[in-house]
Every structure is written in structure tokens, then in C-alpha cells.
Amino acid sequence: MKKFDFFELDEVPNLRVGRRIIKTVIAVFICAIIAYFRGTSTAIVSMVAAVICIQETRDKSVTNAVNRIIGTILGGLLGAGCLYFARLTGLYGIVPLYYLFVSVMLIPIILLTLLMRRPSVSAFSCIVFLMVTVTVSPGAGPVMYAVDRTIETLIGIVVALLVNRLLPKIKKSGDAE
User: Fold this and answer.
1) What Cα–Cα distance (Å) separates residue 12 from each residue in 4, 5, 7, 77?
2) pLDDT in tens, 38-59
């Protein structure tokens, strides 16, 4: 058994603010401003998507963004369907049973991503599914709520890709990430 080590790195990291950090901050701020002008109070959804999608390189960011888009659409669609079913059957009103239903629904979501041969999409699908099914307000329509969360996530992805594309490449290997 491998010994647990609190620190992942053997040496002290270089604590300079590098371009990836700057790109992340810019992308999150842009997402917040877009949410402000859209009049939504859930800027966190696009902000989290932007943080996840900013990667070390543009290629990694694009790969991550494609996976995030697939996961977002899958999680949003399945979340809307489950929310609609839960409200139709009255399951939504029995909170512990509803949470059990939502938790168990992660199994087919993960299996579906494996069937699609895209295991890297699993976490993204589950996150959006949970965002749709758990944070919904009682009066919100399930489909529109799912569409809104999906759009907010896609905004974060697009902003991250644009920021990563438009800001200069990282040229020095010693630049802090």
C-alpha cells in the first residue's frame, strides 16, 4: 500500500501568477458580467464551467470543452426528463425518496457515457444532471429550468474557449499555471 503524502509535489511550487491563472480569472469575470446582463442569479454555473475548461494548452481546453459540451447536453436532457417524471408522479414532493431517485439515476448516466465510449464525459454529465435535478426551485418548469442551466454551462464553455484562444499562448515553460 502506498504511503499517503499530504503534498502532491516534492518541491515547493513556483508561486507566480501565470497566464492560465489570468485566463481563468478573466473567463470567470466575463461569465459573471454575462450573467448580470442576462438577469440571472446563477452565474456560478457558467463560472464553474469556465474554470473547468481552462486548461494548460489550447488543445487540452478544446478537448475538455468538447467533453463538457457532450456531458452538459446529456446531463441537461436526462435531468429535465427525470425532473419532469418526478413532478408528474409526485416523487418530487417526497424529498428523501426524490434524492434516492436522483442518486440512483447517476448509474444509467455513467453507464450511458461508457456505452458512448466517452468515460471522460461521465463527471460532466453527472454534474449537470445534479445541477438540474437538485437546485431547481419548486415553481420552475422542468424543461425550461434544464435549458437555462444547460445554456449557462455552454456560456462558460464558450467564454473559456474564447479567452484561451484570444489571449496569447504560454511561451515560457516556467510560467506558473
Assistant:
1) 18, 14, 10, 44
2) 998 888 989 999 998 888 788 8
